[in-house]
Amino acid sequence: MGRLIKPYGAMNSKGRYEEFIAATGWKYNRLAYCLHWISHGRRCRCYDNKDHYDWMDHTSGYTRETEHGKERMLMCQPYGLNHPETLIKAAEEFNLDHEISGRGWYGHGTVTIILTPHGQRQRESERALEQTRKQVRERQLAATPAHLDKILTDWDE
Ligand SMILES: [Zn+2]
Questions:
Q1: Which of the chain's termini has less CB crowding within 10 Å, N or C?
Q2: What is the pLDDT along the chain (157 residues), one digit of tens a residue?
Q3: Centre of ligand 1 from the C-alpha of residue 149, in Å
Q4: CA distance 74 to 91
Q5: The whole model's pTM is what?
């Protein structure tokens, strides 16, 4: 009771799963595991399993709240990606962005496939850029007059 629920394989990830959660803020949702959910955001029971691909192995769904609303992400960690064309086709069909990397938490030589609703990643990177700009502005404002004097003096020379 009260046990923290984790996806399959997390216990054997040597802490990579916990690091991933801590670094990204994603929260695992055990009821989210299919292309319909990542596409529409609604819970799906997937009785017919018709949109299941061989690369949907060790699949886990995540959500997180941002100031711009709720984001969701589906991660698949298959041992290989033998038919990438089926991934590209599914991403188009379900209006998703996809990323392929080796940065997943499962390990054991798996490939990491990340699927997000189309446009979400773009908004995410724009937010990150805006955050960096804000930090730069704050640092500039925090600069002491002595610093500014030095900068202005240097420019005059
Ligand atoms: Zn479904």
A1: N
A2: 445 799 999 999 999 999 999 999 999 999 999 999 999 999 888 877 788 899 999 999 999 998 878 999 999 999 999 999 999 999 999 999 999 999 899 999 999 999 999 999 888 888 889 989 999 988 888 876 666 666 666 666 6
A3: 62
A4: 12
A5: 0.81
For residue 121, the CA-to-ligand 1 centroid distance in Å is 22
- Residues with CB in 5 Å of ion ligand 1: 34, 36, 44, 46
On whether the CB atoms of residues 76 and 59 are closer than 8 A, the answer is yes
Which pair of structure tokens corresponds to residue 64? 């997180």
Strand order in the sheet with 112-117: 27-29, 60-66, 69-76, 112-117, 96-101
Cα 146 from chain centre: 42
